[in-house]
Queue: 2 jobs
Job 1
Amino acid sequence: MFNQKRLVSLAVLGLLVFSLVAASTVAAKTAPYEIKWYYPCNGPQRDLELIIDEANKYLVPKINATLKMFQMDFGTYAQKLPVLLASGEKFDIFFIASWTTPSYREAVAKGYLVDITTLWDKYAPKSKAQLPSGFIYGTQINGRNYAIPANKELAHQWGFVYRADIAKKYGFDMSKIKKFEDIESMLKVVKENAPDMIPLQNTVNETGYKMLDFDRIVSDTIPAVLYNDSKDMKVFNELETPEVKQYFRTVRKWYLAGYIPADAPTMTNFTEPRRAGKVFAYCGSLKPYVGEEVTASLGFPMEAVAVTPPVVQTRDACGSMMAISRTCKNVPTALKFLELLNTDPYLMNLILYGIEGKHYVKINARQIKMPPGVTRQNTGYRVGNNWVFGNQYITYVWDNENPNKWEAYKNWNLTATNAKSRGFNFDFEPVKNEIAACNAVWNEYMPGLTTGAVDPDTVLPQAIAKFKAAGLDKIIAEAQRQLDAWLKKTKKK
Amino acid sequence: MGQKRGFWHEFKKNKALFLMLLPGFIVLLLNNYLPMFGVIIAFKNFKFVGDTFIESLLKSEWVGFKNFKFLFNTADAYAITRNTLLYNLAFIVIGLVVAVGLAVALSEMRFPRLARIYQGAMFLPYFLSWVVASYLVYAFLGFDTGFINKTILARLGLPPVSWYNDPRPWPFILVFMHLWKWAGYNCVVYLAAILSIDPEYYEAAIIDGASKWQQITNITIPQLVPLMTVLTLLNIGRIFYADFGLFFHIPRNTGILYPVTNVIDTYVYNTLLYMGDIGMSSAAGLYQAVVGFTLVIITNTVIRKTNRDYALF
């Protein structure tokens, strides 16, 4: 009796152990790899799990992987990314660009990214083939690729985005605007006739200073620049140029006249007043059909007028990329996923727009609209920002966007000129201390100067002196040295 | 202090007590001392070269004191050190006077219930984070919608002030905000100390005909001196650490205000957030810790020389 009991329990135990071992070996063979993917968008979406389930149904048979997406808004992403990278968290794919924190260059220098130069050809050849060569060599650092750039518009162009209805009401001829100063007369009319409106939303980080369009070969916050069409390839301090002085004086005049909001140097929430229809014009980055795009997102008729010509700088190719983290445990699978994302319209549009019939319905082969009863406010999935994800040319556009948008992008890329330094990447390492110090000076002086909140005649000389004391000359010399070496090397080729 | 005996003798005598000390000691070791190994980051050019953080740390290149250079090399080095030290000195001195003053006043109140209400009201800001406080301040100082510009100055017929564009009032605003947050908390600490003073002293003083003011200056304050010394000593140890939330959130990290709001902590944050350089950030932290530690030792030595009982150790 006793023995029997023991025998039975032993048998049960044996069976249990066996089944566990069996289960685990079977699982080890076929368990799909979970890809953890971080990117910025409109923020976490309510129906994210539904989209992940759909995507997994598709991904498991194709590449034996499942997806875990971490969505956050751009502000959160900027805070989260440095921590994610520095802490050594295990994840696979993430969004990076020349303008993120840390920047693409910095992240590569720190060793956060997997070098995909050879793996790209092996595991994701089609995603490479569809990219114009400018993107492939434009995102290289010392000849190596560390991320897959999104196939999108390549050039950048600065100009004014403005309320078309207001311009029409006062009979403005916006096409007359050729340079930054030309908008002054219109701002005056708006200020006098519509005192509740902000004539020019020249707020910090979104100022007309960008229309000077220097080639920022060192960093966005270091005044060591080139002209895009530089003849002598001499790096210089932009703050000492007459055009910068003139710009500062112009915005100062406008600030004092009330064309620019008084809290411009500290104002960071600039979309709110635009959504409320309180902004007549702001300085923005342009691309084909930008007016339609902004009209759709703000709900007011918006148009754009260009001030600078379209130019491609090194940083433009690096405007939006997906990189693989050094902590990724399965690089081939991650690359296979990116290959699918960039070449498979079903997968791309699923992640971008959600489930057909639930989050969108098709009008024709290119355009989609909201299903009946679903609005932008109550939809469970609207990530927006489709330039973040990858190949834009395989994505749908909304019904209020131009169906020829992608062709227009391709043509626009062709019209753009290349900055002379395109392809040059500055190495921070030799002047790290000076960069840190100059960055602090920039943050102290530039918000006030570029928005017109301080008097340039007294503050600009102070700023220049402080940049000098912080070692700007050393940075300029180092940038010149690296640039000369780069010019020599590329000419030999 | 009795005769000196070896540690070993003590250990043998109080084995049980030492055993009881052991868990706490281990936690202290694991939690506070083991991570100190990480200070070597400050002397390295940290890069991810290995699979794990520790491996990368060990393999990264040694750079000596190069990471510290940016703290002293800059045009701002003097300004940020001065701001950090002077603000903290002001906080210590003014904070002490106000907290002790409030505590004495509260303890002398005739209606204990009313005193408790005051105490609670003063204590409340301690629980609000600087982020919340920054919006409260903004509600007062905002240009278009702020209470001061829109209600007070407008009623008086004065032009609005662009508060966030003018550095001059900010030293006062920052000191005021620090008091607003901490005075209530420190007051409670001193109040507790006052309540624990033996009432016999006061009874004796009253019999001797001492006035209220004489009681305060001759009994209450002297009885509080040890506590004041200890708390001040602890604050001096942190004199190189600025209250990041106060200096970052309250002025809304405005560049124009940097000359009076930039302290070591915000400077390090603003420069290195963008650089993402762990080595340089650690160097700044280590520098603050070393200076703070040295200052505590010096102050403690001075105090021990003058009055041994008041010293911390």
Job 2
Amino acid sequence: MLRELANAGERGAILTVFDFMSDILQAWNEALPRDMKAAAVYGFVPNLFLCQRQLPRAVEAEECLINAVVVCGNEMSRSHKEAILRCVAEVQKNDYCRTLYGNALPAASVGDSALFIFAIKLARFAPWFSKGDTSALKEWGFNDESLLEAVATIALGHMLCTLADGLSPVSDPRLALACSAEFPLVPEPTDWVETQGPYLSFPAEPSEKSPSYIFFRQEYGFLPNLFLVQSVRPDLVEAEARALENLMLPEDHLSRIQKEQILVTLSAANLNTYCFTMGCQVLSVLGALPGESDEIIAGQYLGQLSPQDKTLLDEAVKLGAFVKGSRGRFDRERLRTVGFTEAQIVEAVAVAGLANFLNTLQAGVGVVPDFPPPRTFSPKDLYPSDEKSRPISDATRPEDPDAEIVTCVQSGEIDAFEELVRRHSRRVYGILAGVVGNMDDVQDLTQDVFLKAFEHIGAFQRRSKFSTWLTSIAINTGTQLLRDRKPSESLSESDEDEGFCPRQIQDWAENPERLVAASQRDELVRAAVLRLPEKYRFALLLRDIEQLSTEEAATVLSISIPAMKARLLRGRLMLRESLTPYFVRRARES
Amino acid sequence: MLTCAEFLAEFGDYVENAASPDVRAKLEEHLHECKSCQVIVDSTRKTIRIVTDSASFTLAADKVEPIVRDVMARIRTKKR
């Protein structure tokens, strides 16, 4: 350590930061006076970390990321990474970080110039970042791994600037003033080219035994694309998993929901569809997201929050990487006034730092959401009435065959609605029949669904196809009827199937349809489907009976695609179990 | 090689012929050795076929127009 201290002046600040942090963390685990001694012994611990002393686990999370991004990795030199961190500090106009990396200077080669143009575009104009920016760097010999290192370093720079913005550490007396540095000028983009990610190729899925894989499986139920695409650097994924674990899971200061709300709100402010979608999914699982995704007021508040939580998000959003300064400066005093403790405020800033890290990382690698986004953000959200930033899309959205008619109805042509009823009455009827079971109600309910759709068609914003939207209304209408009839029964969850595994292992006939008359077969299927627990029944109804795509069905049920697939498979296996006695191979057939 | 429990947790895409080549190879390695899972895959595919082809929840064709008529009548009444 002392030897490295002696060399620290030559090698830039970041090594010093990292090495000292592990020592100070060790000290923090012991008594407070020793902590102070440790700082005195080692001479210098950046105030950025000292001022988080109320929350050692936050510093530990930051240490993990700094180690993985700056110290590890074999593709880019440490001096390049430090120069990128300095570049991000310049872009963010962050004096503290500018001084922290004051010795880091960009090299003068043309290839380096391309790297800094890349860094500035991502650090300053992330919503405009596209595959073309990545391709430009690949022309200079960058491969997927070195691109990932560059992107992660830019993301780390954002995180450190966020911490400095939120915590306002006093400058470190040991650091000299930053040397002046010239970085390329990158003008504000005028056109947005929407490109389909990811910009890096997906490596093989990581080992199921790796701790990060286990963490994501346990906490998220699947391995999100954002982490899957980084599998080439398992140590980096591991550090990100540890950072999430240290910051998001403990509830000794802020609650998990408060922290996820910060993540979602900042992602919306940064116009990051991926992280917004993932955050909404987590909130939904935590039961903290209002039923309809339309109720999310993007960039502002989620659902019905307490005045204290509104203030928390109102301040946290000021730390957005992309919107810095546009909503005013982060105001710690305001949070104290409404009752937040120092540790809670430090945690809020640390979570905002992590949110900016993940947002920038995603924007750089371009992975697509793991499930249907409740809302898609783009640069045009910044200029709602300006034509110049309209996307030039290279990703074709699925055409909605009802789009024209919907436009007519929305503009007041009532009669046009007739065709929508004609086209979709069979599907709505089928859904309701599968949800409520009692056929006597179904025709009246079908009419009710269309009346609701007509009443609300003005609010239909075409984020999905009209038929998907209508199917959601049908599912909700049927479910509500069941709830009204059997309020005491929990219809959405059933534990009886938790230990389900197939018991019927008999061969089925080659043509099982021939064993039973069509009308009897329909009745067998109907009875077996209606016996399925609700969540599996709905999945099977949408996918196998009404033939929606997996994505559409997941949208209707407001669940992720992996969750949809899991429910569908369980539903199919349970149905197979019920039907087996009727369709097994007869003796003469075998 | 996969256990039966692992196979049963993963074969959803396989029955729809939508599994990635890697997953498919892993599943087929297990299937090659396991008669029980062969039976489950075969009967699950047949279950999907039967359910997809059934008319269990289908609205009869002659019921469509009465629904269209009633819905539009209720809308027009409300709008008056």
